[in-house]
């Protein structure tokens, strides 16, 4: 009987902890009203409020890093051909060395 009561108390305690964690995770955070100082802050302090994450800041990609889609398609096509050739050579002469060897493709899978 004592073991049953102990298990029941532990279960109740775990249920209470889970309820508290669920309540903390689902509550909506409302910003608390900011406390206004008695004196005006310096002009440097009146800039935009600091945030950990910005408002969807989009950084432009430099034009020199953009690769034409045709070049990417050619690289993928070449990679697929090399992989198919490696698979065919393995099917013709299956050896453990061919199974573990890398292909000549510059793309890493």
Based on helices, strands and strand pairing, what is the structural class?
mainly alpha
Biggest β-sheet: count, sense, barrel?
none
Distance between the termini: 60 Å
Helix content: 40-55%
Principal-axes geometry comes out as: elongated
Low-confidence stretches: 43-47
- Tally of strands: 0
Q: Nearest-angstrom radius of gyration?
A: 31 Å
Please state the average pLDDT score.
76
Features:
mainly alpha, 3 helices, 50% helix
Q: Explain this structure to me?
A:
This protein has 109 residues and is mainly alpha-helical. The protein has 3 helices and no strands. It has helices at 2-26, 69-92, 96-100.
Task: Show the helix and strand layout.
Blueprint: H1 2-26, H2 69-92, H3 96-100
Offer a quick outline of the entry:
The chain is mainly α. Helices cover 50% and strands 0% of the residues. The model is unreliable at 43-47 (pLDDT under 50).
